[in-house]
């Protein structure tokens, strides 16, 4: 339990996490996998196991949960949303640093993640450059750039309508609105949602509605605020990115609508040791979801293996 927050304190906060494998005596075989939006530590399990890039017989793997994601301390755990302060991504990273120090980690062989997990991995490399050897940032940038902010403002307004709008209705509308941003134009044009088991566009939208109705609006809103709070003026962002000393493998999807490949390329130019490795996929932002699409997941695992080979 710890206190977190720069803009109001969240007291006795609980940071939930899971581990696989064992830390070596040097404390430097650790891999950090921070959670993504609507995700938890469990969602990285498809990437972990014997013979995988993230082999728990070789690496000590830690998967953490963002505050507000329903597993770590969240608005839905408290008496009322007013009890939950505005938190930043930096608040989350500093809490994770306390955890890793407690676990005995001295250096991360790899910090990696998808979407908001990628944001956190890059922020780790900015805030604690001496602790991070490698970063693999999949379909995510360090900062929330303007097109991303525009997307967030639109879907945030739906969550903010609660309680004026019944929560389950608002969550369903949120999921349906989110879906249109998550995949590429090609995905919709060629009806590739059929590959995911949806017979029609309406079925796909209903599926996204149901998925988001499993969450609480206050939790989704709290994490969206963390995400949106990473917006920075261009020069300030460049200054932060220049602090990174880790080898960075930036893996945007060419058809991602909100963590765009162009914004990832801009960040790569500001990082001293960055390699840009775009994914060509019709699945847009979702292409990077751990284990969801076999071809894309195999490419991401290969990049993680490359990063870890360079760490040894």
Describe this structure in words.
The chain has 312 residues and is α/β, with parallel strands linked by helices. It has two domains: 2-143 and 232-311, Rossmann fold; 148-223, no CATH class. The chain is built from ten helices and nine strands. Strands 3-5-4-6-7-8-9 form a seven-stranded mixed sheet, sandwiched between helices. Strands 1-2 form a two-stranded antiparallel sheet. α1 crosses α2 (116-127), α3 packs antiparallel against α4 (167-182) and α4 packs across α6 (201-213). The longest helix has 18 residues, at 294-311.
N-C termini distance: 34 Å
- Give the overall silhouette: globular
Query: Helicity, in percent?
Result: 25-40%
Query: Largest sheet, order of strands side by side?
Result: 3-5-4-6-7-8-9
What is the total domain count? 2
Mean model confidence by pLDDT: 95
CATH superfamily of the largest domain: Alpha/Beta hydrolase fold, catalytic domain
CATH level-3 fold name of the largest domain: Rossmann fold
Radius of gyration: 19 Å
Low-confidence stretches: none
CATH class (first level) name of the largest domain = Alpha Beta
Q: Biggest β-sheet: count, sense, barrel? A: 7 strands, mixed
Architecture of the largest domain, according to CATH? 3-Layer(aba) Sandwich
Topology as a string of helices (H) and strands (E): EEEEEHEHEHHHHHHEHEH
Count of discrete alpha- or pi-helical segments spanning 4 or more residues: 10
What percent of residues are in strands?
5-15%
């Amino acid at each position: 339990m710890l206190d977190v927050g720069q803009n109001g304190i969240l007291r006795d906060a609980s940071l939930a996490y899971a581990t696989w494998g064992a830390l070596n005596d040097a404390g430097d075989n650790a891999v950090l996998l921070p959670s993504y939006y609507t995700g938890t530590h469990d969602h990285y399990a498809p990437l972990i196991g014997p013979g995988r890039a993230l082999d728990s017989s070789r690496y000590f793997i830690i998967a953490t949960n963002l505050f507000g994601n329903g597993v770590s301390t969240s608005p839905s755990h408290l008496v009322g949303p007013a009890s939950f302060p505005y938190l930043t991504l930096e608040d989350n990273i500093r809490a994770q640093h306390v955890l890793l120090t407690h676990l005995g980690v001295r250096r991360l062989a790899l910090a990696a993640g998808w979407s908001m997990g990628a944001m956190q991995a890059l922020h780790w490399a900015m805030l604690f450059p001496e602790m991070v050897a490698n970063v693999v940032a999949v379909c995510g940038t360090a900062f929330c750039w303007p097109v991303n902010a525009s997307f967030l403002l639109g879907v945030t307004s739906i969550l903010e309508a609660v309680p004026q709008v019944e929560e389950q209705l608002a969550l369903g509308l949120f999921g349906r609105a989110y879906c249109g941003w998550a995949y590429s134009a090609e995905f919709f044009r060629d009806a590739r949602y059929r590959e995911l088991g949806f017979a029609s566009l309406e079925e796909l939208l209903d599926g996204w509605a149901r998925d988001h109705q499993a969450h609480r609006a206050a939790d989704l809103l709290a994490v969206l605020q963390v995400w949106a709070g990473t917006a920075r003026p261009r020069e300030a962002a460049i200054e932060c990115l220049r602090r990174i000393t880790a080898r960075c493998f930036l893996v945007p999807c060419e058809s991602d609508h909100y963590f765009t490949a162009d914004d990832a390329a801009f960040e790569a130019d500001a990082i001293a040791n960055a390699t840009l490795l775009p994914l060509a996929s019709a699945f847009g932002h979702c292409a990077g979801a751990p284990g969801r699409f076999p071809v894309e997941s195999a490419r991401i695992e290969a990049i993680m293996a490359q990063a870890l080979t360079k760490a040894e």
